[in-house]
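Continuing the batch. This is chain 6 of the set; chains 1 through 5 are on the previous pages. Same settings as before, nothing changed between runs. Recording input and output for traceability.
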Amino acid sequence: MLATSQIPTSAMGLGPAPKDTPSTTACGCSHASSSSPETPPYESKWKTTNPVSLTRESFLDLIYGRTPLIKEAQFISKDQAQAVYEHLGPQFSPYLHATGPPVSKVGVAQFEFQAQSQEDFKNRSGNEKQRYFNEVAKVRSLHDDLPKAIPGLNGENIWKKVIAAIQPLVPEWDVCLANEAFSSPTTINNLQETEYFSGIIRKINAGVPIHCDWAPYDTLTESWILSKITHQAVFNLYLSPFTRGGSTTVFDVQWSPDALQYRDPSSYGYFEELVKGKKQTTFQPEMGDLYFFNSRNMHTVAPLEDVDTLNGEGKVQDAQQQNFVPRMAMASFIGLLPAEVTGGKPKLMFWS
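Output for chain 6:
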């Protein structure tokens, strides 16, 4: 995330940055200025607050902000989810960089190499992209390897199963992994070296603050191809048995430059005033469920009720809580790269 003062006056065609700067309290937190200009009356574009099934119409509604949530119950069997859950459980490591509550993962997230706070913005090294692609190379074969290592998957690549469910819905778009080579013209010869990773598996036990994931703003510190998308969504395939807590709430508030008035400068989060009075929808996933939502919408994940304290890796500290069930899911962003960038068909890109 960029610092408020660093966003260009026009962020990828999204309009001017807010004229009023946030006021600062004694705690150092930024809040909306009392002199902020009046905003237009709130009008929701959502057709419903209930989850809908995956169809061409619902997927396009999701991408374009007209529906908040798609659900495919039991997209994979509980036996398959349990097999992945048990196999990957010991393999998690903490995010290389995260300014909010602890998150652990198998795979790599581009988020780990973003400027997440105002302090981050001051300390960019210039080699973030190369470090990211170095990490991608280490996990590139993860989803091809899992069916070989986990008999309970019955040979099925569950990441590819999600992609295969989306591909026939949008034949007018190329469905593919994100790649820096998609800029037109490009001088990149080895396409694999600049291919993104998709399908990170995460444990989010301590929750996450209200935030959104909107690459045209989040990646402006460097020239990532992600900064050129026009729409963004996310899928989560849930692998955990039932957890107490850990629900996700999506708000009918999409990122705009005005949202920066509510940014928490110490992290990637936003203050609650931004979503107050807006429509919202909350879901509690079950094992094997697949959910999609528009990641430009503000959203939050509640902490698990069974956890009192966590160490830096999101692991249980209290020996009395050894029966604790972590919240585990496979996730990927989905972004639409327009024809004026690709020089051909638009691309529906996947990355984590």
